[in-house]
């Protein structure tokens, strides 16, 4: 755990949170900002900056909790869909350097989390195959 991380403070009980669920490896609590009611954050209890640092056991526990919380949020709050997201780094607007998955109810035409600011490129199959090879070269 980190002494300077607000989510680690929540895990330790040193900072307030509206806890929805907790188990040995994960915790879920209502996010401090509520664009739509029900926005919930799921975190590992251990301090991981982002998903790239997860070990398989913690990753599986986080995803099991995300699945469980997503079902509950979808039933508890009005929505026409749900968004899940995890941001990594400044360019992706990560605000807390502790892995967290947002579970957010969505409503039609809410314009929340617009994915692309303009129409994205549609590369041909050869280009996509080249991109796939680049990623495969870095798998561990």
From TrEMBL:
- Per the record, a Pfam family? HIT
Q: Which UniProt keywords apply?
A: Methyltransferase, Transferase
Q: What EC number is given for this enzyme? A: 2.1.1.-
| Record flagged with keyword Iron-sulfur | no
**What GO terms describe the biological role, i.e. biological process, of this protein?**
methylation
Taxonomy, superkingdom: Bacteria
- One Gene Ontology term of the molecular function aspect: methyltransferase activity
Q: Where is this motif: Histidine triad motif?
A: 98-102
Reply yes or no: does the keyword Phosphoprotein apply: no
Name the coiled-coil region(s).
none
Please state every residue range assigned to the domain named HIT.
6-113
Q: PANTHER family under this entry? A: ADENOSINE 5'-MONOPHOSPHORAMIDASE HNT1, HIT FAMILY PROTEIN 1
Q: What is this protein called?
A: HIT family protein
